[in-house]
Structure formats: C-alpha cells, structure tokens
C-alpha cells in the first residue's frame, strides 16, 4: 500500500510509514528502550510500539523486530502489553522458537490479580497458534474455565476452540468439551454460555466426521432441554448471541404443536427488535417450525411482513440490501404476500444501484392482475432515467412481467412505446424483449412486427439488440414486407459487422427468409453463404458451410432443419428449479439468500463440513438388508456427508432435462458405480435377474432422444396411470444415484401422516421399520437418528417401469407422526405411491 | 465466524487490519479493494455489500467514506455481519467523538483495543459502549471536528441552529471535558427521512416516512428514563383500510405502519399510555425505528416545466413552495434536474432579490443544479433557465429530461407529527437537573417530481 506521507521519527500520530529502513530503525530504537528505566521510558515505548503496529497494519513485514518486541514486553503498562500481545499474535507463527520467550510472561499474567489482565493474557496465549506450545495452554485454560471472573471464563470458553484448531488431540485429551458443556448449562453469565455454545458446535461438528460420539453430542445440542434452556434465557444474551441461539432453535425438531407455539410465543417480541439480524433469525425459527402447519405458516408470513418492510427503510442501504434479498426469496414462495405493498419497492432517488436492482426484481416478482398496471407504469418512468444501468434493468423488468403475465396486451403497447423513445440502449433492450415475448406469445407477432419493421437497423449498435432484430426479420419474413431487402443490405455490410453473434444470426435469418420468400432472397443467400464461408470466425464459417452442404444435399431437408414449426416456449431455461429454491429457503438468513445459490455452490469443500446439512445427516447410516455384515460397521461416511449435497450436477437445467439425464443413469451397469455397488449387498447377477425391464429401457432411450431435440417438452403425456400402483419387489438403486436423483428431482409431495401407537412404540431402532417397509417392497437407502426422531431415505420402483420414487421420511415416535417428502421420476403417480407408502407405514407394528 | 476485519480508506490504505482465524489467504484487502473499485466500470455501478471471490465472502459497509469490511469462509447471516459492521462504526464513533479517516488514523491503537473485545476468534462478543469501557485503556486523541465534513444524522444540528451546543455531538464517551467535570445531558433526536414522488400533474404518487428516535446519553449513574409519545399514536394499519386515513393533515392521530425498539426499551406500559421506559446505555443508539405510509403534508411543493422555445432551444421553470410555518427554516436545499443529453448551454435567471442561491449546469452529467442556503416557511422561489441544444429536439422533451430531485434538511420540523410529549429522568436528588435536548429534524430521502 502506498504510504501517504513519511512519518516523522517520533510522531504522536503515526500515519502509514514506509519501507525497510523504517523497520531497522524501529529495531534500533526498541533495543535502546529495552532496558531503559527512564521515567518516560513507557511513553517512548508506546510511541515505538505504535509505529510497529502501524507498519504491520499497512502490510509492511515487521516480523524482523520480533526479538526486540519481546524484549520490551516486560512491562506493567496495559496499553503496551496489549500492543505487544497484538504483535506477538500476528507474528508468533513465523517465529515459533522466539514465541516461546513470550510464554513466560503470558503465563504469569494469566495468574494476575486483575481479571482483565488474566483474560487478556489467556486470550493472547490461545491466539499464538504455535503447535509446539500447546502444552502450555491446557493448564491456564482449565483454570480459566473455572475463574471467578466472567470475563476470564468468556475468554477461556473461546480459547478451547482455538486450542482445538491448533491441536485436536490436546483439546480432547484435556476433556475440554465436557467442561464447556457443563459451563454452558450452568454459567450465570450469558456471554460465557454463548461462547461455550459456539465452541462446542465448532468442535463437535468437525469431530463428527470421525466420531459417532461427537455426532450424538451435536444431537443433544439440538435437543429440547438444551434449546429450551437457551431460549428461556434469550433476553440475557447480547443481540449477537441471540442470533446464534435462534439459529440453533431453527433446527430444533419439535415433538408436538404445543412446543412450537411455546417457542413462538416466547420469541414474538424479538420481531420488534431494532437489530435486523435478530429479526431475521427469529423469522427463520418461525418459518421452519411451522413448515408442516400450512395455516400457521401462512399466518407467520402475514406477521413478518411489517417488520421486514420496516427493516428495509430503517437501516443502512447495506442492510436494506440483505433484507430485500430475503424478501425476494419469500416472495418467490408466497407471491401474493406483498402484492398490495408494491409501492414499498419503488426505487428511491438515494438508493444505491444494488438496492434499486433488487427492488426491480421484487416488483417483477410481485406483479399480478391487481397491480401490474401501476408497477409497469412506474417501471416505464425509470426507463427514461439518467441512470442507464437502472433504465436497462427497468426495461428488462417490464419484459419479464410481460413474460409471466396475464394482461400482456397493455404491456406490449408499453414496450413498443419504448422503441419510439429513440435512445439506442432503450431500443436495444426492447428488441431483445420483444423477441423473447414473441417466442412465448407468437400470437402477438402481428402487432409487434408492424412496429419493429419501422426500426432502422443502422440505428442499433448493441449486438444483442441487433441480433434480436435480425432473428425477427428471419422468423417473420413472410409478414414483413421489406425483410429480404433489409437482410440484403445487412449482408452487404458483412465486413463491417464486428460481432460474430450478429453474423451468425444473419446467416440463419437469411436461410429462413429464403425458404419463405425464395425468389426475393436467392441473391442475398448466395452472398451470405459466400461471406460466411470466407469469415475468419470459426463458428460463423462452420455454420455457413453446414448450411451450404445441407442445401446441396436436399433443400427440403434443409428447410426442415432450419425452419421447423416451433412450439411456443412456456418456461425459459434460466428459471431456477424449485429444488434449488427449497434449498435456499432451508438456508434462510445466510449468504445463500444473497447469492441465490445453495451454500454448496459457493463454499469450498474444506469448509463444507460445518454447514447445515451435514449436521443433521452426519448421524445417518446406510440402510442395508443385512445389518450384521461388514457393511454396517463401515459407515458410508462420504456419502452421508454428501447426501443431498451433490455438487456433481449444476442443476441449472434441471427443469428441462430431468427426464433425460435420470434415464441415462439408470442404464449404468451397477458395477460401474464404484464403491456404492460394494455396499448394495446384491451382486450384479442378481441385479440383472431382477430387472426384466428390457423393452422399457429402449422406450426410455427414445424418449430422451426426443427430449434432446427439444420436441419432447418436459410434460410429455404420461400414460394414464393405472388405478392401483404396484411396486417392483426388488428394485435396485445405489446410494450415489439416489443422491443424484434426490438433488435433481423436484418435490412432488410433502405430507404428514401418522403411525399407529403400537408402531411408534416398537420403533426402537431404525432397522425394525426398514425391515417392515422392505416387506412392502419399499427399500431403505439411509437411516439415522436418535429417539424420538428418526430420519429415513426410502425408495421404491414402479413395477415394470424404470421410474423410481424417493422418500425422505422423518418419524417422531413421541408424537407418532411422520413427515414425508416424496420425489418421483414420474410425478403423475406420486400421489398413488404416497397412498401406498402411508398405508404400509400405518401397518407398522400391527402385524 | 468472522475471519478478518479491516477498515480501508478511499484510496485502499489499511487503517486497521485484524485477522481472527488465519484462514483467509493473504492479500484479501487488496482483492477486496480492487473488486469494489472496479465493480462494473462501464456501467459505473456500486459494488453490492456482499460478494464472494474464490470462496472468500466479503461483506462491507461504507461509513464516513471508509470501507468497513469483514471476510468469512462460512455461510453465515449477512444481516448479522452488516449490523455488526455498522455497530463497530458506531461504537468507534462513541469513543472517538468523530468518525473519519483522520480520527481513525490517530486512534488506531484504541480501535485495535475495541476490536480485541468486540470479536474473539470470529465470534461477536459485546458491542456495548458501556461494557467496553473497562477494557479500553487508551485515551482518545481528539481531532478538530470543525474542519471535518459533518457525518451522521445528528451532525446536521451543527449548522444553522443556535440553540444546539455544537460540541455535544462530537464528544467522546470516555474523554473528559476541558473543565474536568462532565456535563450531565441527554439528547433525543427525532430524525425523519421522507420520500415523496409527485406525478407530472403534482399529484402525490407515493409518500413514506422512515423515522428514528435516536438517543445519546451523557448521564452518570444510569438513571431510568421515561419517554412519552403521542397518546393517540396508532400502530399497524388494519389490512383492508390501507387508503382510508386521508385526514392526517387536519390534525388527526398519527398511525405508524410498524416500528421496532432497542433492546433496552421496556414496553410494559407502551400499549396503555404510549410511554417508553429505558435505562439508556452509553453512546448513541436508536430507541425506536418506525415507518409510516399514512398520507402526510409534504413540506415542499415542487413544480417543474420544460417547454420548447424555438428549434433547438427550451425553457425550464422550477418553482418551490415551502408549505410549513414561517418560524421554521429549511437549509442546504439542492434541486437537481437532468436535461436532454444534447443540451450544450444553459443560462439561468434567478428571481429578483434572491439571496444565498447559486445555479450550475453540470455538463458531464447534463444536469441543472440549484442550491439555496435556506428557505423560510411559507415562501416561494422560482428559477428560470434557457437551454440551448446541439441538435433539434425530438419533440417529446418531457421524456428526455427530469425527474427533478430535491434534497433538504428542515430542523425543528417533523412530517409525521410524532412527538415526544415529555422526557422524564428519574431524579437522584433535588438538585439533579441534567440538560435535556429534544430535537426534530426532517431530511429528504427521495423527493422527486416527475415531468
């Protein structure tokens, strides 16, 4: 970083100093001061220390002065001590041997009379991050956790987590987690409790990967006694700790509705908190607790509306940004919710552009029959805005509303008015929109074409806009009188056209035009193909060659390829899948909401272990038919952690391609699917025998090929489902494929059902239910949990078909209720499968 | 779990830099700064407060022209981090009196002390100005606030109004007064940001008030305080009757859409007599935030006209009428109007006898700017401008120009009519009578008139 000004040698206000000579100068001065007993020695030391820290802040390497700093550190001046600790904390790692020198005085300070000094020293001691010094940490930490001062206990409880990161075994051998847990459940100081909770969660989450005991310990943190204990003390906590406790509570699985209402009543006033983080954390608890109670869930939406809108206006623009991101997520789930508050999302003059953009997205999302007119009117005002990026976004927003809307008529008129504004960026954006609009609503072509035809292509500079215009010229050349001639003039200027995208479109448009109006276009076509073949751009060249050969081969075939009848696009591919949205919703009040991506897409593998999904899945074991075999012992750890988290598929195109891609995975021979086939206790030969599905495979293959060509729209007419569903008695699905499918398929059904009381009572371990369901041809792929909550992943397969049904089933034996989430390859039969599954479940324990 | 916290100057210099967990690769501050500075160069857009580069999440707020940034590797609540950053800025201001680059640079060691206590191993600990006092050993080094541009909403009291002790708002909670004795005083500021959009015909399209009751206490011994608001204050509008409250200008009751409160506020009797009880913590904090969409009387009427006056000329007329009482004066008023992009020149004609008014044509952004030092309630001001174009206009001038935006501050005025009826401090002794300042101010957040 560039220094602002060279600081005078003993400046009381050190600004950014510079360079190497500075460091050696500082070393020199420190050495002189080390033994000094002059009355103002401490003041002088302060000055020099300040300059060292100032250098350190500026990014200058001052580690060379480590020895000198340590020499000067024996002092009773607290300000000096703190500066020294800060310095040592940053540089100890690079100088482990010299760091040893500091241990002495840090240990001594840990026994100081003054609790502030004790705390300070302990914190610095734990922050050294030098592995070979850990032996000096254990004793002060253990005493620190029992210190009479809450401040020291607070420091010690975080210190335990620091120690865990430096040396896992030292921390565990000293039994610090147990001490933390005891402290968490008894300490009178709320911040100590909060810090114990932080540390325990961190330690056990990381430990859970290797130890079942740790996984169980995590379970206890989410158990009723702990959660209720913390919630009852909620008001004692600092607002930041409250957020943490609320996050914990949002993952609590209540056993009955009374618990849910108790929690909600207790937390009701947190929604009025001035701190937006507390409000959002509370909202997460409310939303997640009421997931299974539709009407209460709806009430929650109504309740949180006003506080959220207040947060948008009350806080900093940065906070409004975060809150608006959450509002956007909620609106995607409950579009009606804010439809009458649309004015709250009008852009304000002082809003930064990142807030304005979000507001435009909100307006797009809440537009419906009742407010579209007002919203579009407002958006049109922005289109003439001096702020060009916002003007563009506004036009796009109008277009999106048109694409999702009912009253397209009025909007089309507005869009066409944009074209009259004669601003180049407005025209370009509008053309792109009109093009998309026509792809969805071909019936509007007549009105649009009339206006679009009047636009001179010379006035459009932006490639996207120009390409859109050319596409329309080609597609609707039969309706546009001048189309061949406009295209011809464009071809004449081929060499001046910079953008390959435009040239590609031009090639195709001329081809289309040729098939519709051959005599008028023939000349242009020849010129186009010649220009295309000579083009330096690879794609343009190749496409020109392709068209040329196609025409040579057979013009009729060429027409079928270039100009097939088109179906209107119903859903554009960039629409996010509902599965992804669900996952983001599960991660409410986190960065996922801001990025609009589930966390696995933006956090690296190394840190993934600490996230939400892994916590409730770490305790799952892979369900196998024979629990006494080797397999049960050898927990399929990797898969556990990754279940529901598969990164292998980006899922961008899930909505369109789910059929195709899943069929292809069926065909993979089981022995190619790696370690998972070892786990499924069936041998490949068995698999081959069980699945007599030859003909269906080929049917599926045809189907996916259709899809590839874009002819088979996702909702291919399913054969009328037989009244009663029968299941394949021995379906085969390996965990890897299950996981992949679970990630890809959209949720078909989410239901709650009951178990018989006998069934609930006899569910002592997952195996009993697994065996019972097997007898109903429903297989278990993974299970886990502790009484009273069990979680299972089941699957079944339709007899004689390849379509699978996947079920997530959470059973609570206390309330004898089970929550089901069903995903199906063939959504039309999901309901009959659900019926079948529930009847099987309800018979559990009766036989 | 926060990995790092740092403050960067506008030029990207590190002012403080603290690494709590040592898990983020080196150079994060530089990576951050480059990204923010060049977010989207072509479109001149501001970087959003939250973004991710190579797995590191950067969360920042801009305060006093400085970037307050945290980095994290985990998927944590962005709101928590953003609130925390604002809070760190506020606590720092409580200690330094003034928050700006200069004061931070002079006191960076004190800021490190604060950071040590506020965050430990990435977990927020305490942000209470009061609780932190016992761990802060550095004396703040004061900077001259007079030279500094005013910061924060409370700073507006420093201009214009003689009734305010100018130094109070820039007083550190720990520094001693020159006389050695601390003055017992408490400030309650009712700050309202108003947003109004007028249609071209002068009809109010939208209006909203975002208000805060902000408190800053310098009282010793933490006495309890009772703050009474309008007795007939209504909260929450019954869903269906959204547009039925049209009589507010006639003095009807104030109805807030919603509000929230600071942690320290006891609401036990709020439902009965609209009184807030609290023991104010040290430092500056919002007692209550509120939002109101009930119709209110906007303080200014703005009329803007643009008309063709010949083939490549146009005339602009801007008129402002102050619709508030004559004993109230608005100050630092700016009116801006974008004009067609092909405008070459503008000549202005101010009203006769205009004092303290300046005009400007900003060529770069094609904007007319009209600045007025003050506007007295009840008065009306006009500006005429003649525009010369480089080409003939396309006919529809109103689509090429506008909307007009206005900025202003009106001390001792509040648009919502929300009031502090009284501010009671529980007495320690008969002679104990601290200074109490209840101040109102209204600011334009977005005051827009369309053409």
UniProtKB/TrEMBL annotation, chain A:
Composition bias type Polar residues, residue spans: 655-667, 674-688
Keywords: Membrane, Protein transport, Transport
SUPFAM superfamilies cross-referenced by the UniProt entry: ARM repeat
GO-annotated cellular components: clathrin adaptor complex; endomembrane system
Sequence segments annotated as region (Disordered): 1-42, 644-696
GO biological process: intracellular protein transport; vesicle-mediated transport
Family from the record: Belongs to the adaptor complexes large subunit family.
Designated name of the protein: Beta-adaptin-like protein
Organism ancestry: Eukaryota, Viridiplantae, Streptophyta, Embryophyta, Tracheophyta
From TrEMBL, chain B:
Gene3D superfamilies, per database record: 3.30.450.60, Mu homology domain, subdomain B
Keyword Phosphoprotein: no
Chief place where the protein resides: membrane
GO biological process: Golgi to lysosome transport; intracellular protein transport; protein targeting
Record keywords: Membrane, Protein transport, Transport
Localisation: Endomembrane system
GO CC terms: clathrin adaptor complex; cytoplasmic vesicle; cytosol; trans-Golgi network
Domain MHD: residue ranges: 183-450
Keyword rRNA-binding (UniProt): no
Pfam family name, one: Clat_adaptor_s
Family per record: Belongs to the adaptor complexes medium subunit family.
Name this polypeptide is given: MHD domain-containing protein
The species this protein was found in: Brachypodium distachyon (Purple false brome)
Lineage, top ranks: Eukaryota, Viridiplantae, Streptophyta, Embryophyta, Tracheophyta
